[in-house]
## 1
Amino acid sequence: MQKKRERLLTETELELMCIVWRLGQATVREVRENLPEGRDITYTSVAKILSILEEKGALGSKKGEKTYLYYPRIAKEDYESRALRHVTQGLFDGNPGSLVMRLLDGTDLSREDLAEIRKTIEARLDP
Amino acid sequence: MQKKRERLLTETELELMCIVWRLGQATVREVRENLPEGRDITYTSVAKILSILEEKGALGSKKGEKTYLYYPRIAKEDYESRALRHVTQGLFDGNPGSLVMRLLDGTDLSREDLAEIRKTIEARLDP
DNA sequence: AGATGTCTACGAAAACTTTCGTAGATCTCC
DNA sequence: GGAGATCTACGAAAGTTTTCGTAGACATCT
């Protein structure tokens, strides 16, 4: 048996998934209306991706007033962690510390961000 | 014209790219030999992906003793930053602080990791 | 020179992702 | 009840990624 590698959502899937996370639940129409400016894909294309997301277990659906409502079956936080593990494995040798180091090096973090992160770390170091 | 979104390397491309980064430079054969246990793809498949990576500008190649040597044209560090920006944008609302928070929440970081990260942050806060 | 092995190029099959159109179902408003 | 709009299901075209096979080039050994 082939070890099924943990696949992340694809670009477009994630894009739509984020909209559902943000709205809490949404119809195809609503997802479509919440696409960013200039991003236009047809109603049916959006419907298709949502149904794929349902197939993959990321979304559920239920009958709403007149149309289906899609809602997340996985928490955004969980997916975030999963994505970070994936990146950590694939690019940072499984070492999350290296990831943070790279982020600190390659990104402009505000003093506020830095201070907040430090506070969180200290809370963890001194329980 | 369609705004070309910044595409990251695909899974397999990244997998091979990491091997070249690790080895510094490598022949097709060497890359193949450095695949993880149980991952077998044919010589020609590896060669194909490497040539795609060259096409995309991620690798260069030169004549070695008897066979081509591939070497990185982009630094791993740069790619890491790029990947993190991509994740930050796509999943954390453009906010790198949120990313770190999620990593701290969703991952078991060792005390050493935490301490090291804190040190880096403090160095940045008090220059 | 000829057989054998290794290497690169090329193309294309297979798999997956993204996008769309059509057709049938359902609702809504005269 | 019928015209028109909206919704879902289905399938498939178009695009991309992954994988492989074949063929020609080049070397090596005998």
Note: Residues 10-13, 41-42, 44-45, 48-49, 52, 66 of chain A lie near DNA strand C (CB under 10 Å from a C1').
## 2
Amino acid sequence: MLCYNWSMSADPSPTLEDVARVAGVSRATVSRVINETRNVAPEIQEVVRRAVIATGYVPNRAARSLVTRRSDAVGVVVAGTDLSDSLSAGQFLTDPFFGRLLTGIIGALKPRGIFPALMLAENEADDAAITAYFKQGNADGALLISTHPEERLPALLDAVGRPAVRFARPARPAPVSYVDLAHREGGRVAANHLASLGRRRPVAISGPLEIPAAQERQAGYEEGWARAGCAFVPAAEGGFTYDSGERAMKELLDRVPELDAVFAASDLMAQGAIHALHDAGRRVPEDVAVVGFDDSAPARLSRPAITTIRQPLEAMAAEMVRLLLERIDDPGAGPTSVIFDPELIVRESA
Amino acid sequence: MLCYNWSMSADPSPTLEDVARVAGVSRATVSRVINETRNVAPEIQEVVRRAVIATGYVPNRAARSLVTRRSDAVGVVVAGTDLSDSLSAGQFLTDPFFGRLLTGIIGALKPRGIFPALMLAENEADDAAITAYFKQGNADGALLISTHPEERLPALLDAVGRPAVRFARPARPAPVSYVDLAHREGGRVAANHLASLGRRRPVAISGPLEIPAAQERQAGYEEGWARAGCAFVPAAEGGFTYDSGERAMKELLDRVPELDAVFAASDLMAQGAIHALHDAGRRVPEDVAVVGFDDSAPARLSRPAITTIRQPLEAMAAEMVRLLLERIDDPGAGPTSVIFDPELIVRESA
DNA sequence: AAACGATGGGAGAGCGCTCTCCCGTTTTGC
DNA sequence: GCAAAACGGGAGAGCGCTCTCCCATCGTTT
């Protein structure tokens, strides 16, 4: 059997005490140098730094947390029960939308040396477990990403004294900061683009209308068309998923055979719609122009590539982190919010 | 301005001491009841439980960690530098493959009440930060998911006494447990399926050949065809991505115009290949049959739906968790490994 | 020259828990 | 029936840090 020098023996990590002894100073002084918490004579700082390196010292987080009452950790909570045919939290992890958000969060957290704990909240038991987790002091605050408009978590977290920042405005007032997109503006941009292409028979595939974002996109789209002289826009409701987009498109083709423009409130639904149109013998974009929403990977990769409304998810994620850390550092502050602008990305489908 | 009863005042959490006082017993007894660490008279247990509920007590994790020297946390490390045109760790997060794995990990960890910390390792600085994180006692062990065959992390983590379980066998011996798929068998199954369809002009789009899994799939595929009487299989190397699949397919169409069967080592590459075939005027599956690998969402959703080799990722993720927790609970144990079987999923493309 | 604040270091308490040791009481074995 | 063992509870040390005091040594002001 192969034998390497692995797992030699984990001799106990050096403590502050050890470093202090090596440096010939007190524990307090070493602590001050490490945390830059008070002036220390430069030559002593140097001695301490050398001792830290010599001993390979690394502070024990549990001990520090015990006294500071901070964990220097944050949680990312993905919430959402499987309502209608919308995404459940579990499925959501495979959504490219989520991947981009997570990438942004991790990147923004990295400079602080913190790695987010990932949690799924799919039911009340999960909510309880997550709340307990925070109450135990495992994390100082939460980043909430939810596919569900009704949420108990903001209130629960607030009750255990943990600030939270939500992606998207909550459906009803809740004790959370949030970061959101100007969805209405996004819908308007989609309508304007389609109108400028000379289309006159628009339809819409909206997201679940109990979600504020879906409502807003739809309202903006209708508003845009109203200004372009089209007062009524037939619409079908989907659940942001591929399948629901396909289904909604079929329904709309039945109801409005003469349609020539589609706005789907997510790229996945746009992809489903395009396939449904294809199956019905319509060409995209020649016969029907399609605009999606999000600018996720499928928009770029599918054929025809989907013209879409881009959400600057990475920047939004970074802002969420900024807001959260700000509230953790200043527990007195209340919730705030930031709204980002959407951007039209023109590709092949419209 | 609206004013709710939010953030009333975070009165300090009750401690063990408080519970003990309420229950009229000692701290030690309460601790024993909570941790079920020794026999306690049933009636006293009952009294203690009542006191815990009455006070709303929840143990402070930092204090516990300080003495147990365990954090009851684990990290999920996503590693991989951007080699050639393979996926970088950041992009990888948007990969459905990763989403499924993560879902499996979170699900398997939930019963233990632990939520994984997510970290990206894209360069040596990240490796150092991650190693320090573990050394600080933030997590007891790591689940490694890498797109990169060369890895420093297993050795680094081992050096700080933290067990690790890797997804996929490491390229060279390393102090990690791992869970993997019988990739060779998967390649063989793909070849057999295509052969049974009557195809006789096979080609392959492999993954990056420095990755063992890609090698094995390719070897199995060639072996399968060899048994079916086809000694030589033209192949092009891709990077598991959509674009690389498209490119490789174009190249193969040039080199082997008469091809009638393609095995792509990932569904994403299969999707790219199908589009390239389509652009070249070939029908799938009538003219060319295509088999992918992974059974990821694109395989199910794209048209034609892709016949593929399924990796039981959720089960594999659960096994990774099991192996890791086992090693955390028994620090004496050495690395082990488990291999899973692939499964052919027949859809439209072959 | 005396009094004073400013500066930089050390001593030591204590964060909330676990766990070893200890001791009184009950059960067991011969 | 009596020693030994087993059981169930309490006391208290101490995990590795931070942070509040406290004190010695300066430099500065009147």
Note: Chain B touches chain A through 62 residues (CB under 8 Å).
## 3
Amino acid sequence: MSPTRALFTVFTMSEQRENILVHASDLFVKDGVEGFSMRKLARRVGVTAPALYRHFDSREALVFAVLGEAYRRMSRHLYAALEGESPRERLRLAGEGYVTFALEHPRLYDALFASPELVGIAELPPEVEAQGCAVGRFWNDRIRECMDAGILRRADPEAVGLTLWAHAHGLISLHARGLLMPGENGDTAAFMIIYRASIARLIQGLGVDVDEGDEQRDTLEAAAALPV
Amino acid sequence: MSPTRALFTVFTMSEQRENILVHASDLFVKDGVEGFSMRKLARRVGVTAPALYRHFDSREALVFAVLGEAYRRMSRHLYAALEGESPRERLRLAGEGYVTFALEHPRLYDALFASPELVGIAELPPEVEAQGCAVGRFWNDRIRECMDAGILRRADPEAVGLTLWAHAHGLISLHARGLLMPGENGDTAAFMIIYRASIARLIQGLGVDVDEGDEQRDTLEAAAALPV
DNA sequence: GTCTATAATCCGATAGAC
DNA sequence: GTCTATCGGATTATAGAC
């Protein structure tokens, strides 16, 4: 490598691409979708904006890469549930892994579920789409497993999975918007208690039992004590 | 009014303010948060951009007004549930009114639950915030009413209300992102079936009954027949 | 109340030198 | 592979004429 070139070439092509992607994820995490620009990213990486185009064809391609990385992180959180030693434990761990990812990376979680045009892209790349389907399959497998083990009422696993997914996603979204707890916000410990109590309600059912009438359970009392 | 002034003055101040607000809501509905700009709005109203500042101090003030109008529409949908003649019917109508508003005005619904910075404002105005609280109170009242009538298991109405709200919000969000049905999207009729079936699951509970084991209910069979 | 004109920023992307 | 310089566009908002 000639001395004149060494002045500019600090990273190799692929190293710098990796470096840009890391900084891009950081910027996404800090400023969210709306604050993500090529110029800001270039400033953060320590180069000028045009240099980024040597590594990514466009802003859109860069966003794709960030979303792909986000999906990979979420998958890692979820798949850790396979460490559980029973169907019930694996389902519980999957639920916890999902919400943990959402709480640890709220801007990434937002971006994964935002409308494509809101992220500044036309539509999700097929690679990311496929990862989403894989996550869905993993989730449904955990539920089917619990039905087979007699822990969940037998029904269509996909339908039950959707109910649980929608509930988790909704609770996470409302929490992220600060709509759950009136005073002290950002309290993840309090949110986790609310989250678990709400899931317990889903399992038990909101309707009255045919025989036992107006009985109260422990989990419900814990939830009732919280300021919601 | 002198002839020279009449050339420009077609609306009175408040009439034009109203007119701008209507067009602003339309533009919001069409282009969403990210496509809402003073210049687009001016073009649509039929004036130039600076003219808008005679009626609204800033873009932010205009967004406030649009969000306030959106909340008023949502409230109207919800409060219609008071026409119901029993607690169960009023709760059902409230749930249907909520989802109906979300499906009829998806961009407004998005805006109401989006992070303030994503709408291009610092934070929600207190007027809108207060309307949100009122909606929450109305919803909790419907649930308390059903507990008193023995239709819902007795528990903290706010906690149960949160579970139901999160589930509805999550399902609506996932539907709006096209994540529910693989092929034909935008099918609101199919979504309503999924929505109602999922609520039925919440009421009945996902866990197994202590005695009846693996029995199947009608609503679940209907849901299982759907492609999810 | 509305206009024209313009200030002041931001953005994505490209050309060509080194 | 990175630079400087620049194009072409978007935006919010203001000043001053009528």
Note: Residues 1-5, 212-228 of chain B have pLDDT under 50 and may be disordered.
